[in-house]
Write a structure and sequence with these properties.
Number of helices: 12
Number of domains: 3
Oligomer: single chain
Helix content: 25-40%
Structural class: alpha+beta
Length: about 550
């Protein structure tokens, strides 16, 4: 029997991807790796073709005519790719290969968490801004961005599992129904039901003597008796709402596919291919969710609005509670929020991490210093269609108590800047800057926070950037002498360190996180990891400010 195997060139480990694909542990297939696809025991191996995302792979020479081989390297791409095996005279065999990010970049779940929290923070900050308009649901006239589609696609797998769990054990409700039965079949009818049946229909008179009917009926009996029944029904309000949500997502994905098809760029072939590939994926996702609508709890449910109401069932039943959380995630994914950051694929997670750190810190600043001091007017641009575009270039947000957070603030050479503050070498753009201006220069504080989506040994390579920021950013005094303006410099990273008692005994990179090391040198690293609560982020912000300002008036 023909089989297609996938083999790691580094380890030699192999697993079947078609037919009946084998489960592969996370991290086995990852970006920057190199893999071989091997087709065994196929009489058509010599003419077989293998395509990844509709692009054919180059075939390699094999030693036997029943075997075909292709080499594939994901490059800097992580996520699900569509594979298609073509054999002459047979229907194409399609399957998916999921590639994980490099271990230094953590996992795909972290990417999903960052997209969710970026969208969530966007709505939270938008709610305290001067804008007072709702964010529309739907595609509008602009194609949805890659990060949103990646996020939605990752939710569909879990959605299918949740719907399957609900379909196996759905909640039911007893409903009252009335059946009209001939008198000879209504042997279980009660006295009140018989009496109510006299109100309509034909009345029969018993001719047999002696009568077998109860004496109060005087020999009369309705021809048809209305009998009340208790039936188990799936037509719950929650099932109606869930079915409406599924149908709305089907429609949204279908509209998104049409929009991607119509808006394909004319010049760049790669962009045109990407838009076409995502249009096909949106249609497949739409069909997958459409199949879920056929599940018994939703097929038997009535009509309702595509909105879930947090009832006791959604709070107490684990499967229904998971559906409610997925509904919240899907709403974030289909909201009309735009911005260049959302056009980042999973392979460029590091850029998304930079924006995630900034938004998490802005929201933490709003909770730490109070929303009254937060001014996010420069963050949002609304349009007539109800969408919101998130501005992410050189943005400064006051967060209260005199502190400002700047995202990708551009520092030119200090001698061409009006305030004589800048770089003495080349133009520099730190990821995040926390600044506090005071009347005297001695009381001013500037903390550089460089976001690095790396862990373990990868952090050592990132130290040069914060060294550069701390040393090269200066201001010119009245005397003509220059002095540094960076109070402290820290890496922001998802790494969780292991810290010894003293920083001298703590090996790298854990030494960078040691409180005594950070306070003593005003230099090091702090942990900002996807999934951290707002309180944990606020605590991290307080630590950074406290470490960087100790001993400064």
């Amino acid at each position: 029997m023909a089989a297609l195997l996938m083999r790691s060139e580094k380890t030699g480990e192999a697993w079947r991807v078609w037919p009946e694909p084998e489960t592969v542990a996370p991290g086995i297939v990852h970006e920057t790796g190199s893999y071989l696809f091997e087709l065994h025991d196929s009489g058509a191996a010599a003419t077989a073709e293998l395509l990844i995302d509709d692009l054919p792979l180059e075939a390699l020479r094999t030693q036997t005519p029943e075997t075909a081989r292709w080499r594939w390297s994901p490059g800097f791409h992580a996520g699900a790719v569509e594979a298609e095996l073509r054999l002459p005279g047979q229907a194409p065999r399609r399957f998916e290969v999921v590639t994980d990010p490099d271990q230094r970049k953590l996992t795909r779940d972290d990417f999903d968490a960052m997209v969710r929290e970026i969208l969530d923070d966007t709505f939270a900050l938008f709610s305290i801004s001067s804008f007072r308009k709702a964010v529309a649901r739907g595609t509008g006239g602009r194609p949805p961005a890659i990060a949103r589609l990646e996020f939605l696609r990752s939710r569909v797998d879990e959605l299918e599992a949740v719907v399957a769990a609900i379909a196996r054990s759905p909640r039911r409700v007893l409903v009252a129904d009335e059946a009209i039965l001939p008198y000879h079949r209504a042997s279980r009818a009660s006295g009140p039901e018989v009496l109510r049946s006299f109100r309509s229909g034909r009345i029969l008179r018993e001719s047999r003597k002696p009568s077998r009917l109860p004496a109060p009926l005087n020999g009369f009996l309705p021809e048809r008796i209305r009998v009340r029944q208790r039936l188990s029904s799936l037509d719950l309000p929650e099932h109606r709402q869930m079915a409406a949500c599924l149908r709305s997502w089907v429609a949204w994905l279908g509209a998104a596919a049409e929009l991607l098809e119509r808006s394909r760029p004319e010049g760049d072939p790669e962009l045109r291919y990407g838009a076409a590939a995502w249009a096909q994926r949106c249609r497949r996702l739409s069909r997958r969710i459409g199949n879920l609508c056929a599940a018994a709890p939703f097929a038997e449910a009535g009509e309702a609005q595509a909105r879930l109401v947090l009832s006791a069932l959604f709070r107490n039943d684990p499967s229904y509670r998971r559906f409610y959380r997925l509904w919240q995630d899907m709403n974030l994914g289909i909201a009309a929020v735009f911005g260049d950051f959302l056009n980042l694929p999973l392979a460029r997670t590091f850029e998304l991490y930079e924006l995630w750190c900034f938004l998490r810190l802005v929201r933490a600043g709003a909770e730490e210093f109070g929303p009254a001091g937060v001014d996010v007017r420069d963050l949002f641009i609304s349009d007539a269609a109800g969408g919101v575009t998130f501005a992410t270039g050189a943005v400064t947000v006051p967060v209260g108590s005199g502190w400002k957070l700047c995202f990708q603030k551009h520092y030119r050479e200090f001698w061409i800047e009006p305030d004589r503050r800048g770089s003495y070498s080349r133009a520099m753009t730190p990821d995040v800057v926390a600044s506090h201006e005071a009347a005297g220069s001695s009381g001013s504080r500037l903390i550089v926070l460089d976001a690095k989506y790396r862990i373990d040994e990868g952090l050592s390579d990132a130290l040069s950037s914060i060294h550069t920021y701390r040393d090269a950013l200066v201001q010119e005094a009245d005397s003509g002498q220059t002095e540094g303006i960076v109070t402290a410099a820290y890496l922001l990273t998802p790494h969780v360190p292991v810290i010894e008692t003293g920083y001298r005994e703590t090996p790298m990179p854990g030494r960078l996180f040691h409180p005594a090391y950070r306070t003593g040198f005003r230099f090091g690293a702090v942990t900002l990891r996807p999934g951290m609560t707002a309180a944990e982020i606020a605590t991290t912000l307080r630590l950074v400010v406290a470490d960087a300002t100790v001993g400064i008036a």
